[in-house]
Amino acid sequence: MEEIFPGHPRAESLRIRKRIAEAMEMGIVVPEGLTAHGRGEAFDYLIGEKTTEVAKRAIEASAAALLMASHPVISVNGNAAALVPSELVELSKICGAKLEVNLFHRSFRRELLIAEHLKKHGGGEILGVGEENAVRLPEIQSERRKADRRGIYKADVILVPLEDGDRTEALKRMGKFVIAIDLNPLSRTARAADITIVDNIVRAVPLMVEILKEMKSKPTDVLRKMVKSFDNEANLAESLKFMSRRLLELAGETPNYLSGGTKG
Ligand code: PTJ
């Protein structure tokens, strides 16, 4: 692969693309994962490729929900494994969550490759590989219906980065508390989740790790209050307003009705 010059104005973005392209060559990411990444990049442009205050509030509420969970699980697909493998492992260790491979374009080979990749980055037990502990969630049409009876099947809180909408809706119907990371605030996943973090996974997961470290000592009633007072619909609306305001500012306009929102 071509070298990326550190002085290139888009060096970081190119580095991330390279990571995901290499992971596709390894069989971890599917070709559809590259187009999904491109859609994410477009939304990342709209927020200025920085974590907004709006997203930070969602990350804090997510950290509180993960700390309060009795059985938290982090669902890992090809893109997430390619982009933040060691960060997901660290996150799982800090909040005691299990890591489970769960794929839309499922194959046993990809399950194995992703589990190995996570192990190479420090992961211990990785759920969701093979059929031994597999159950099928009847509510889901796609291959994502496969869940591990030790993981997603019995989880109370599930983190689903870069998800497609069907499963989030189904998990909600099953009474699970769902946290999504999705740069697109209009996606079905973003709308259906209990908490949606509108941020790039490459920034959101490391920040969640930092916030979790700080929050670990907080009393349960404080954590509960943080989760209860979080309003996902309002938070998504704030993200949309942030994007709209930014576009208008870039176009040289600052309309009154958008002023007074959160600065990123
Ligand atoms: O590995 P598999 O087989 O499970 O497949 C993974 C993909 C991503 C192909 C699959 O889940 C899929 O098709 O997802 P969607 O429906 O395209 O949704 C992915 C969402 O993630 C979109 O709304 C994107 O905007 C968003 N997204 C893409 N890259 C990032 C992102 N959100 C946060 N950070 C990113 N880096």
Describe this protein with a few key phrases:
two-stranded antiparallel sheet; alpha/beta; 6-stranded parallel sheet; binds ligand PTJ; globular; 264 residues; Rossmann fold
Reconstruct the topology from this structure:
Layout: H1 11-26, H2 31-46, H3 53-68, E1 72-76, H4 78-83, H5 85-95, E2 98-101, H6 108-120, E3 126-127, E4 134-136, E5 146-148, E6 157-161, H7 165-173, E7 177-181, H8 188-192, E8 195-197, H9 201-215, H10 220-228, H11 232-250
Parallel strand pairs: 1-2, 1-6, 2-3, 6-7, 7-8
Antiparallel strand pairs: 4-5
Helix pairs in contact: 1-2, 3-9, 3-10, 3-11, 5-9
Give a structural overview:
- By secondary structure, the protein is α/β, with parallel strands linked by helices.
- The protein has a single domain (53-240), classed as Rossmann fold.
- The chain has helices at 11-26, 31-46, 53-68, 78-83, 85-95, 108-120, 165-173, 188-192, 201-215, 220-228, 232-250; strands at residues 72-76, 98-101, 126-127, 134-136, 146-148, 157-161, 177-181, 195-197.
- The strands form two sheets. Strands 3-2-1-6-7-8 form a six-stranded parallel β-sheet, sandwiched between helices. Strands 4-5 form a two-stranded antiparallel ribbon.
- Helix 1 (11-26) runs antiparallel to helix 2 and helix 5 packs parallel to helix 9.
- The model has no long low-confidence stretch (mean pLDDT 93).
- State the CATH architecture: 3-Layer(aba) Sandwich
Going by CATH, the homologous superfamily would be Phosphopantoate/pantothenate synthetase
Q: Main beta sheet: strand number and arrangement? A: 6 strands, parallel
Strand content: 5-15%
